[in-house]
């Protein structure tokens, strides 16, 4: 592990970021990247701890960038919370972060407007006035479908593309992602494997509040009542886990129905409840192998609380 990092260097320019990383590598350090969209909480800081635990001399980079291409125009890009000064304070207090990459924009803009083909879903990037010069996308074709991909049609295309851009700019040896965004983590692992990025991907465990709510930047938008109702997600996952462990070969359908009932009774609007194989994310009918239960529900008008992951270790 590296010596205490002190105050992180804030880098806003892509070329400067790449040059910084290359210098750290030339010093013999392993460059570890933690990609975020900012408004940091303990969940993010746990990814930093995970990064800091990498063996040998390291250089830890946290990126803070709210990526417009993963939001559809109907989604909450405009109201996504931010607090750069607070984020920098939190990161400095860990003593484990060497640089913060906070670019004003990561896309080529103002080139020929590339309209989406008729009927295709469009992101905030493409919808921006004047079009944009960006037209290259990474699609992880099967894993991007289903779960969050069903209600957020441009989400995973935008995530895969911006993460590939971050990988090309920061050139990390290791990158850390949270398992709270379970589908995202699996999709990035697959992209790295399929496209031969020489990067080790670490999946970091979910950090929850004392009462069980998974930490999430968007939680700040929850009213006190909505927050209370959102606790039903963790409750329903815990009950499902117990039910599945108590009955071998439980039927997924039965457990999913119970989760939907708990969420609905709490006043949530269910986006999806699915029980999937852990790596392929293929839905299972019977819980006869390790699976992950993925749940997303809306509490309140704006907010989707997306929480997955309740692995059943012994079927
Ligand atoms: N509670 C958590 N536990 C573990 N990892 C987390 C947690 N919350 C976020 N992360 C991880 O931090 C990284 C950056 O996430 P992001 O900045 O989008 O924050 P977020 O809290 O997930 O925000 P959102 O409210 O948009 O879901 C992702 O890899 C994400 O999975
Ligand atoms: C991985 C990511 C930083 C890409 O914008 C984002 O989706 C997130 O914060 O989970
Ligand atoms: N961590 C998820 C990022 C998003 O919802 O856009």
Automatic annotation (TrEMBL):
Enzyme class of the recorded protein, top EC level: ligase
Keywords, comma-separated and alphabetical: ATP-binding, Cytoplasm, Ligase, Nucleotide-binding, Pantothenate biosynthesis
Catalytic reaction equation(s): (R)-pantoate + beta-alanine + ATP = (R)-pantothenate + AMP + diphosphate + H(+)
PANTHER family linked: CYTIDYLATE KINASE/PANTOATE-BETA-ALANINE LIGASE, PANTOATE--BETA-ALANINE LIGASE
Tree of life domain: Eukaryota
Similarity field: Belongs to the pantothenate synthetase family.
Pathway involvement of the protein, from the record: Cofactor biosynthesis; (R)-pantothenate biosynthesis; (R)-pantothenate from (R)-pantoate and beta-alanine: step 1/1
Protein name per Swiss-Prot or TrEMBL: Pantoate--beta-alanine ligase
UniProt xrefs under InterPro entries: Pantoate_ligase, Pantoate_ligase_C, Rossmann-like_a/b/a_fold
Catalytic activity, EC: 6.3.2.1
Listed GO CC annotations: cytosol
Transmembrane segment boundaries: none
GO process annotations (BP): pantothenate biosynthetic process
């Amino acid at each position: 592990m590296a010596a205490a990092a002190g105050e992180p260097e804030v880098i806003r320019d892509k070329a400067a970021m790449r040059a910084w990383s290359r210098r750290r590598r030339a010093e013999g350090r392993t460059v570890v990247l933690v990609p975020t969209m900012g408004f940091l909480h303990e969940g993010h800081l746990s990814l930093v701890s995970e990064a800091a635990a990498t063996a040998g001399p390291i250089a830890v980079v946290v990126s803070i960038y709210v990526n417009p291409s993963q939001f559809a125009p109907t989604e909450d890009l405009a109201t996504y919370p931010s607090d750069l000064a607070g984020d920098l304070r939190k990161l400095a207090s860990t003593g484990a972060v060497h640089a913060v990459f906070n670019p004003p924009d990561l896309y080529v803009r103002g080139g020929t407007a590339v309209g989406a083909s008729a009927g295709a879903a469009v992101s905030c990037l493409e919808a921006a006035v004047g079009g944009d010069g960006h037209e290259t996308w990474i699609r992880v074709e099967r894993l991007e479908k289903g779960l969050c991909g069903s209600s957020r049609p441009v989400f995973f295309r935008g995530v895969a593309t911006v993460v590939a851009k971050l990988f090309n700019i920061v050139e990390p040896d290791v990158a850390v992602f949270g398992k709270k965004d379970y589908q995202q983590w699996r999709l990035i692992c697959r992209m790295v494997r399929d496209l031969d990025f020489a990067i080790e991907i670490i999946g970091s465990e979910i950090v929850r509040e004392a009462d069980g709510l998974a930490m999430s930047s968007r939680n700040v938008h929850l009213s006190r009542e909505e927050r209370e109702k959102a606790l039903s997600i963790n409750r329903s996952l815990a009950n499902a886990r117990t039910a599945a462990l108590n009955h071998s070969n439980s039927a997924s359908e039965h457990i999913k129905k119970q989760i939907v009932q708990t969420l609905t009774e709490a006043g949530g609007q269910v986006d999806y409840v699915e029980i999937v194989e852990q790596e392929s994310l293929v839905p299972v009918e019977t819980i006869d192998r390790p699976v992950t239960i993925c749940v997303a529900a809306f509490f309140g008008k704006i907010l989707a609380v997306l929480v997955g992951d309740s692995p059943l270790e012994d079927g």
